[in-house]
């Protein structure tokens, strides 16, 4: 089946190259790696898989050693009790927030260009939120008792400490993860049915058919699907905002200088979108290159995502300036002292690097030529993600190292295990992604097809 002959549609022309502007071309481009893997060279994939698997093993070693010896192997001390683990958690949950936020918000705003990126952005959410959920458990000190966070039957006369931020995180992450799985999987069902119908082997037809849940593509199925998907998107946007607001409140609800600020919840939400879009850019470039999807993920996609990075960068800059102004205008000595410590203290280099990465780099996207240079956009995505991780780390170690009591001022010195866990979690994320690429369509076929079917968009 092909799209109508009169589809000289400007939207399809804007977001798809000519070789991707028919139903069959879209199906073939996306399904070929899954249905005809023998025609592909998987050398690069295997190389990346081996590296990511080695890092995943390293993460398992780090976690095992942590459980055996305790959190003392990290650089935390009696003053800086939150170290890399909490910074990693906030960074990963921010990336996880962005995937569903991007997909749901763009769906409600009828931004049809999302069709080429929403599938792997949503998958990014699943993996990032799952990894983020591991860090608070590791940080508990006694991780075997993590189930104390849940209100399980009170046979041991223990109930969760409802005033603890860990409780908020536990339920927020759990709710978000369940929602993201349902949202992602529902969007996958029509494509699994398409693969079922195109599969040439009995095994392919069985497995894709099993997970397609009997999808026939009838009018009733499509009507139910669109009602469900739109409803979930309406629920997803406030849920995402709530989740990262809760993470921001972990800090804002404290009395520590630099943390007890009302700006933290919205500031964290914007930061999550910023780092999440930067990560989506990296994944889009990898998927585009690795699966030869240049016809579906075009320069236009990178152009529009670069504009979003530029907007988020300006909001982040305003947020930083608001913090500085609030410290000065409030007149609280501890707040002023903390701002001075950020610029002149132990971690000043990381603070300057953070400001460069988060506030300055994206301004090159005022130039159209920069936005349309994919390599440059990818480099900016890497730099922004580094900057956003440093921001999380600066929030943690600046305040904890420079609190109210001068006698308690102590610096944080990360250990090998801090760095090993950080980089190995990146490897674990890549490992999960590489496995997904071999099992499911990485770009949404049915939503991309809507771009070449004008009546479907009305």
Write the layout of secondary structure elements.
Blueprint: H1 10-15, H2 23-35, H3 43-69, H4 84-108, H5 118-139, H6 165-198, H7 202-212, H8 219-252, H9 264-290, H10 299-330, H11 333-344, H12 348-360, H13 368-371, H14 374-401, H15 416-439, H16 445-449, H17 454-457
Question: What can you see in these coordinates?
Answer:
With 458 residues, the protein is mainly alpha-helical. The protein is built from 17 helices and no strands. The protein has helices at 10-15, 23-35, 43-69, 84-108, 118-139, 165-198, 202-212, 219-252, 264-290, 299-330, 333-344, 348-360, 368-371, 374-401, 416-439, 445-449, 454-457. α4 (84-108) packs antiparallel against α8, α9 (264-290) packs antiparallel against α14 (374-401) and α10 crosses α12 (348-360). The chain is globular.
Question: Strand pairing plus helix content: what structural class?
Answer: mainly alpha
Helical stretch tally: 17
Give unreliable regions as ranges: 1-8
The average pLDDT value, as a whole number, equals 86
- Gyration radius, rounded: 23 Å
Describe the biggest sheet? none
CA(first)-CA(last) distance: 20 Å
Cα shape: globular
- SSE order: HHHHHHHHHHHHHHHHH
* Helical proportion, percent range: over 70%
Strand content: under 5%
Overall strand count: 0
Summary, kept brief:
By secondary structure, the chain is mainly α. It contains 17 helices and no strands. Helix 9 packs antiparallel against helix 10 and helix 9 packs antiparallel against helix 14.
